[in-house]
Amino acid sequence: MTEATLDIVAIGNAIVDVIAQADDAFIESEGLPKGSMRLIDESTAAILYSHMGPGREISGGSAANTVAGMAALGAKCGFIGQVADDQLGEVFAHDIRANGIAFNTPTRAGEPTTARCLILVTPDAQRTMNTFLGASQYLPASALDRDLIASAKILYLEGYLWDPEEPRVAMRAAIEVARAAGRAVAFTLSDAFCISRHRADFRALIDGGLIDILFANEGELLSLVETDDFDAAVATIAAKVPCLVVTRGAAGAIAVVDGASHSVPAEPIAQIVDTTGAGDLFAAGFMAGQVQGRSVDDCLVMGAVAAAEVISHYGARPEAKLDQLVRARLG
Amino acid sequence: MTEATLDIVAIGNAIVDVIAQADDAFIESEGLPKGSMRLIDESTAAILYSHMGPGREISGGSAANTVAGMAALGAKCGFIGQVADDQLGEVFAHDIRANGIAFNTPTRAGEPTTARCLILVTPDAQRTMNTFLGASQYLPASALDRDLIASAKILYLEGYLWDPEEPRVAMRAAIEVARAAGRAVAFTLSDAFCISRHRADFRALIDGGLIDILFANEGELLSLVETDDFDAAVATIAAKVPCLVVTRGAAGAIAVVDGASHSVPAEPIAQIVDTTGAGDLFAAGFMAGQVQGRSVDDCLVMGAVAAAEVISHYGARPEAKLDQLVRARLG
């Protein structure tokens, strides 16, 4: 096993978020499942876009948000994801590289366009996401940079990638590359609806011992185990992964690492504006702590600090200097 | 003179802002004149973009920001400006229409792309703007919707439009249409460097009695009159326009209307994040007050409230409900 030159390589949907304010009546009139992520086709996206308010475009994508957060915390990161040869693809590629993240997945020519997620943020700071996967769903296994994957301590995957067919195949290939190189595999369950679509696959990955670090929120964990009993769900999954991290919104988060439980309260925050990216940035803080060799408790605090920053403004990428926030909090 | 169906029609550069944080060292290393707007070509834009940090894309354009603010304050607005047939053009068109603003300038096919303004915001909240005018510079006089212009109480023009040749010609045609219909013409001087490029033209418009409402900041007014004496500059220009509004940053703003002077302090604000759009939104608040038939003092307060909102976050379009802020302030 050669020494890792990167801390993490993430594979994820390469998405530009289009974020608009909306009220509950709008969410209802559009028939949207508030707080969730749904997949939409291009024509549905066009119709919803024509109905929604003025937006701001900010690079997103769950795993991409996570590595953006880790890079802001000093980790050496790479990203693999598919954009099209268009202006939003340029925006995504610029932003990820401007974060200091290695990104060299070849651009895909022709239709469809770069993925967009139409995010409606209600006054309660909840986000309802409507994703047109576009080019992102055509990430082929052949586009994987195997050397890049083998060079990173952690391979990080988002559950959302299981929705489109090509990336699902690519993910399995990436896991093989990482494990053959002796690297850790981290996985986020992404969304309760996403789990309902791919529960068998996710369970097989976990049962097969392919996942070293698993991120979930409370609802996702319950959906995965198909139970209402949180403690039972934690016990079931913690027995199968070396590191389980479960975020619980305002109630903070827990981690079970090698059988030992840890918890952290949520960071106090003056005003929650937009919860988009909270889970992504919690994962960023936690794993940034891990690659720095910090204690599990410190990793949890770093997750909480990063999540608190990202929900204090619109957009799922950090705006403040996360490393300074962590230093102020942990020294 | 038929009754106006719109309160205002603005003609301006149709620009999407790309807003990134930057430190003073970056501004210096790129050789940028901090706090100003400079015009750049596409290749310079590409180089600067490759150097700058991750951005967020938010529709901008000076006059477009002003009508977005006025629409948020209940005014009936139209906008005329040139975008290309590309994703950023779609973003601009969507956002302006989503603000309830009439916008029907035909999209321009082919190169160049929709205008972008690369805005670097330093920790002191100053913005340094680098504008690639792209399609915006090709707004032809033939694209003017003369009925739309004639239907609005106010025609609003930005000084920035004097930089490209075609819109400059179009502006003169638009002024003729508005005056023939008995409408008011409002004008913003935009930028001190812009004035240095077009001082003779701007003075000729003012001396010719073609401007009814003139907006400037302190530096622009001094540049226009080529003096260091603020009071003398105000007196010189106020003698030539029925309504002169001069913003003075943290010192508030003044208006001289039909020879009578009025002033307003700046609104208190918890944190200034990004001063982009401060002048645009001051003009929005002031003119929204005017079309509501408010007193000059109330118009100034509305300008100050709108400007304070827009500088409290990134981006030059309002995020909060301006009408509620004004109601809370003025009743």
Task: Using the 3D structure, state the CATH architecture of chain A.
Answer: 3-Layer(aba) Sandwich
Number of strands of chain A: 14
Question: Strand order of the main beta sheet of chain A, please?
Answer: 6-5-1-9-10-11-12-13-14
- Assembly state here? homodimer
In the CATH scheme, the class of chain A would be Alpha Beta
Shape designation of chain A:
globular
Helix content of chain A: 25-40%
Distance between the termini of chain A: 33 Å
- Whole-number tally of structural domains of chain A: 1
CATH topology of chain A: UDP-N-acetylmuramoyl-L-alanine:D-glutamate ligase
User: In percent, how much strand structure appears in the residues of chain A?
Assistant: 15-25%
- So, the CATH homologous superfamily of chain A? Ribokinase
Low-confidence stretches of chain A: none
Q: Give Rg of chain A in angstroms.
A: 18 Å
Largest interface: A-B, 27 and 27 residues
Let me know the average pLDDT of chain A: 97
Order of helices and strands of chain A: EEHEHEHEHEEEHEHEHEHHEEEHHH
Q: Strands, helices and their partners?
A:
The structure is a homodimer of 331-residue chains.
Chain A: E1 6-11, E2 15-21, H1 24-29, E3 37-39, H2 42-51, E4 56-59, H3 62-72, E5 77-80, H4 87-98, E6 102-103, E7 115-121, E8 127-132, H5 146-150, E9 152-158, H6 165-180, E10 184-188, H7 192-207, E11 213-217, H8 218-225, H9 230-238, E12 243-247, E13 253-257, E14 260-264, H10 278-291, H11 296-310, H12 322-330
Parallel strand pairs in A: 1-5, 1-9, 2-7, 3-8, 5-6, 9-10, 10-11, 11-12
Antiparallel strand pairs in A: 2-4, 7-8, 12-13, 13-14
Helix pairs in contact in A: 3-10, 7-8, 8-9, 10-11, 11-12
